[in-house]
Amino acid sequence: MTPRMFAYIVHRGGVADDSAAELAAAARQIDGTASPTAIVCGWGADLDAACESARAIYREVWKVANPALAYANAELNRQTLVRVVPPNSLVLVPHNHFGIDLAPGLAIKLNAAFVSDAVGIEGLVGGQLKVIRQEFGGQVSAHVGCDISSGAVINVRPGAFKPEPSPPVAGGVVDKSAEAGALSARRRYVETVVADSGDVDITKYSVLVSIGRGIQEKENVAMAQELAEALGAAVSCSRPVVDAKWLEKSRQVGSSGKTVKPKVYLACGISGSFQHLAGIKGSPFIVAINKNPKAPIFQVADVGIVADLLEFLPELTNRIREGHAVSAK
Amino acid sequence: MEILVCARRVPDTSENEITLNAAGNDIERDELVYSINEPDNYAVEEALQIRDRVGGNVTVVTVGGDDDEEILRRELAMGANRAVLISDDAFAGSDGRGIAAVLKAFVEKGQYDLILTGVQAEDGGAQVGGMLAALLDYPFASLVNSIQVEDGKLKISREIEGGNREINEIDLPCVLSVQTGINEPRYVGMRGIRQVASVEIPTPNATELGIDASVAGERAAKVKRLDYFAPPVGKGAVMLEGGTEEISDRLIALLAEKGGVR
């Protein structure tokens, strides 16, 4: 028998995150007949509104109201869940900035197994949940077996499970606030610092020349800048370029950076991690240039070129400039 | 401040293409280049910088075998005061919780104010730091991208969506998982590593740490990797092949068509 399933609902401004419907889709992969319960923690009007949006997806919504939960703090939310979730349950959590904070410790406190960043679920056989994960930046996949005899916490990759469109279910809301009790934290939220907009707003460009680790050295960033200039594009990048301080954080595309919607995206020396791809919206025409023919970026790109960037980019820039010289005549 | 950094040696994805082996059940491990897990290296650098500001010691610990000593030597060369290799055949096949349980036993033998881990390993689950904190009942924060020491507590910032940062106060002792980019890790040359070649690295085992077989190792593991397989193929790109000039011109024509050339 499938254990009782719960979905942890991340919400913002009174609206459940996209992950709410995705967790419901993941739960169906575990057991298509089971009915998972949504858990929504928070405070005030935002919480009530978030419960409303969760009950469109879930037949049952557990609401936990506490002023200490007004801003999601993983330590307090974990205390709450430990008091509310019954033993041996399956708890699904989105693998985002909050879920990474919450879930590993939650699994320990619930004495449950933990699977991180699940991208697929093959189902439940004899107390073993078979899950698909990706490793090494998506270069290989792995099957993972998880013993759920004392429950499990499964972190689910955002975007990996596609919700099926379905009519709102108008689920019931159960107030669990009393069970959660008083909360106190040794970690306290102070404030949110909004990212600098930076010198160039990459979200405004229809063409982006985006560079990754393959650019190799700070000096080589100029090659991308020259190509971008020739194309009327801006230079953006993936995380390793910002980590190495070769470009400002405001140039980073991804779940921890900017979300962009260009028409054309040239991914130069970018392997294509899911965190990076999460920042590219609006189905642009993606050109991938990478010396590793196995790079995952080639699976999502429209056009691929296996080449050494340091040779290819200057050549491409020259050809574009020459082309302009011809058409200007 | 006494700081412990938990580090791991992993196949270096900037140096290797990771492929399946011939049997299709593991990655091809012949001729793989290994190095310290990149976020762990940032964690060590952060620990060294905190120590240099407020005093104290930095200990780097890993759970593994003889091969893992090389990353400890490297981190000693960076400036860590002490390195420890926790090693026992009984730990083979541990899941994240098992490794966290081993580290918990080690932490309880010492006195640490601050424990750092890297946010995630390339083949890991961003889990050991949070699990270790929960086992120790210490406060925890993940994705940390700045640390300031204040009286009896830390002021930290966490990476959240959209490049924004969430500022938190956290009491000591605590566990933090450190995000890449938090600092610029110092360079370590062969000469630096040679200079620490004779530094003794203790290798405590399960008995010395009082670790019971029921908490770590394959039998205790609730989560097991069953196999590796090739990732599902996406729609796949149309590959442009030929000489550089030819490819460039075809690409320029495509870009013009898609609105990519002004």
What would you say about this model in short?
With 329 residues, chain A is of the alpha/beta class. Helices cover 29% and strands 28% of the residues of chain A.
Please explain how this structure is put together:
- The complex is a heterodimer of chains A (about 325) and B (about 260).
- By secondary structure, chain A is an alpha/beta fold.
- Chain A folds into two domains: about 5-180, Rossmann fold; about 200-329, TPP-binding domain (Rossmann fold), CATH 3.40.50.
- Chain A contains ten helices and 18 strands.
- Chain A has a seven-stranded parallel sheet with strand order 7-11-6-1-4-5-12, sandwiched between helices. Chain A has a five-stranded parallel sheet with strand order 15-14-16-17-18.
- Chain A starts with a strand and ends with a helix.
- Chain B is α/β, with parallel strands linked by helices.
- Chain B has helices at about 40-55, 70-80, 95-110, 130-135, 190-195, 205-210, 245-260; strands at about 1-5, 10, 35, 55-65, 80-85, 115-120, 140-150, 155-160, 165-170, 175-180, 225-230, 240.
- Chains A and B meet through helix 3, helix 4, strand 7, strand 9 and strand 10 of A and helix 3, helix 4, strand 7, strand 8 and strand 9 of B.
Quickly list its features.
heterodimer, A: 329 residues, alpha/beta, Rossmann fold, 2 domains, 7-stranded parallel beta sheet, 5-stranded parallel beta sheet, 18 strands, disordered C terminus, B: 262 residues, 28% helix, globular
